[in-house]
């Protein structure tokens, strides 16, 4: 049966199809949005969208039109700028995405979601390229952790990713046991970004293959194959050692460490943006209840009892 064949299918390493016979995944990054869209072309030249906005489509233009229509539906009325000054427009766009979600909030952080969508598109492409159907097909369960780094003369960008895939038991239902994989994704820069899957292989929790790109983040939680020849990136020092996302870190650059609560952090961020745009020569300030205006940091420290009156 197909389910009995599954262990063999999920434990072998990927041998990627050449770019000449299989197009890469195309990316679209609309300005002002925290959503990335990825386009996969199947063997019948139909265009599949990730995340789904309908389709499959018969042309790239149809797919892009669907993205535009989808974003028009998501656009929030609060992002209208009629009657606002240039400074207020800059503040609003600095704080919010066009759907009205706060940029610096956990819900507004796009990186994990966008990488997960990209991985699913790449897995679907691999399933088709290698004729993996039904229970043999790879299905994404979760992206556990990922790192982004650049290396080489052309500043090639790589994602190194640990992900889990869903598996099915003999009854055809998803089991509770998921498989841990390492994936390497490479970006091809051009007029629009494109992505290819360089490597996908199963790893164990004890695997510790060397990668200078991921080590530049200061932790080795991301599991790499012991055989480092299986992946192309990470064999030399990266050009941008701190470019990427640590999923465990939600500190917003530019805000003081004492800003602990989510509400306080958002208030401090707005105060900083407001006074950068409206009073560029003054430090960020917060308005106190008595009407006095003091620097944001001092206001917070006074309210916390950290300074003496």
From TrEMBL:
Region annotation Disordered: where it falls in the sequence: 1-23
Protein's UniProt name: DUF3615 domain-containing protein
One Pfam family it belongs to: DUF3615
Sequence ranges assigned to domain DUF3615 in this UniProt record: 119-225
Superkingdom of origin: Eukaryota
Coiled coil: none
């Amino acid at each position: 049966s197909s389910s009995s064949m599954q262990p063999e299918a999920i434990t072998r390493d990927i041998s990627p199809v050449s770019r000449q016979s299989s197009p890469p995944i195309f990316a679209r990054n609309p300005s002002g949005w925290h959503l990335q869209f990825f386009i996969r072309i199947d063997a019948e030249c139909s265009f599949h969208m990730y995340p789904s906005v309908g389709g499959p489509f018969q042309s790239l233009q149809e797919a892009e039109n669907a993205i535009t229509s989808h974003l028009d539906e998501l656009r929030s009325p609060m992002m209208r700028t009629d009657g606002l000054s240039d400074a207020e427009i800059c503040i609003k766009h600095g704080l919010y995405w066009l759907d009205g979600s706060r940029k610096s909030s956990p819900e507004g952080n796009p990186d994990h979601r966008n990488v997960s969508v990209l991985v699913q598109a790449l897995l679907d492409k691999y399933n088709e390229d290698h004729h993996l159907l039904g229970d043999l097909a790879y299905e994404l369960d979760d992206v556990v952790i990922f790192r982004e780094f650049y290396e080489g003369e052309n500043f090639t960008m790589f994602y190194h990713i640990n992900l889990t895939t869903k598996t099915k038991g003999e009854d055809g239902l998803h089991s509770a046991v998921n498989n841990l994989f390492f994936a390497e994704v490479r970006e091809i820069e051009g007029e629009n970004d494109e992505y290819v899957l360089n490597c996908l292989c199963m790893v164990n929790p004890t695997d510790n293959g060397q990668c200078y790109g991921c080590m530049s983040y200061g932790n080795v939680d991301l599991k790499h194959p012991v055989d480092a020849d299986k992946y192309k990136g990470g064999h030399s020092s990266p050009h941008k050692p701190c470019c990427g996302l640590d999923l465990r870190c939600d500190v917003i650059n530019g805000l003081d460490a004492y800003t602990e609560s989510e509400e306080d952090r958002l208030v401090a961020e707005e105060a900083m943006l407001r006074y950068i745009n409206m009073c560029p020569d003054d430090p960020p300030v917060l308005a106190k209840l008595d009407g006095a205006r003091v620097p944001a940091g001092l206001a917070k420290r006074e309210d916390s009892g950290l300074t003496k009156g």
